[in-house]
Amino acid sequence: MKIAILPGDGIGPEIVAQAVKVLKALDEHFEMEFAPVGGAGYEASGHPLPDATLKLALDADAVLFGAVGDWKYDTLDRALRPEQAILGLRQQLGLFANLRPAILYPELAGASTLKPEVVSGLDILIVRELTGDIYFGKPRGVRICPDGPFAGQQEGFDTMRYAEGEVRRIAHVAFQAAQKRQKRLTSVDKANVLETFQFWKTIMTDVHKEYPDVALDHMYVDNAAMQLVRAPKKFDVVVTGNMFGDILSDAAAMLTGSIGMLPSASLDANNKGLYEPSHGSAPDIAGKGIANPLATILSAAMMLRYSLKKEAQADRIEAAVKSVLAQGLRTPDIAEASSIKVGTDEMGDAVVKALA
Ligand code: NAD
Predict the structure, then answer these.
(1) How many CB atoms lie within 10 A of CB 210?
(2) Does domain 1-96+268-356 have CATH number 3.50.50.60?
């Protein structure tokens, strides 16, 4: 089995190194090939997604991705910015379904900004559509405003759109995920204001007829944001579009104590996937050796489960992560006064040790 390893920028190489260490400690042989992406890809070959990196990702059975981006690239043309690499990979690999579990480990209940009684035992799954919506809709750009009170001025504009097939396929992923959990699905939209999401709601309701064992409810995104911080445990599986999912999954991440704890999987129609932590490249802490590698290590566990069909090994990694948390080991982002404070490398080493 071949894994493409794309560490990227900022803390990317530091956290991916820990996940690689963990994968190497399993009694399985994986062929791992590294390639630059994002700012590193731009430095190496003048493009955030070099041809050789894309080819490697297309040929591999799965992709383990760190993070991309750095403020120093903010002045580049949009097409050359590091973040374009991740958008390009999602599109080229057909990764339309993003699965983001948000689980609150009991040991981290104190690290959440919410009261322990509100979040303890939290276990929700956000299913985000990943290749459509306003992030990819065309036309887009800056033009002269054609009408209204600002006619004649420059305006920025984007296009929100969803085709029926796009909504149907993410609906099936979400309903099937709900079937394996508590059989409750919340579809988040903005159907009261946006035509696109009125259409989304209609299709979700239609697909629901194929999954009578799952309870479906619909919620506006503003209410969903409020409920996520008010009573997050009322959710089981949440399905939503690309932009709403982007925002809600970061809010869900914070419920778990740190964005450094949240893994994610982006899957195609055949469960080939790209696995990455939900956070970015954290340039503010890059190179300091303090980044939390657990989201990346847990992403590697998701890779073993969904793409490489190594369920037992995925379970082992997740158990090892629980064990290091139970031992009290914490990187600074999740540390409390009584914690044993460790850096990125030490946390990776502790997970390897706990595997045994
Ligand atoms: P970010 O997620 O990188 O950081 C937000 C905050 O969380 C920072 O304070 C950071 O220090 C902290 N943080 C993030 N990951 C952490 C970890 N593993 N351990 C401890 N603390 C952690 O978001 P940002 O600051 O908005 O963006 C920084 C760069 O990352 C930007 O260039 C952005 O475009 C990019 N980005 C990339 C991806 C991706 O590669 N998929 C996703 C989001 C943002």
Answers:
(1) 11
(2) no
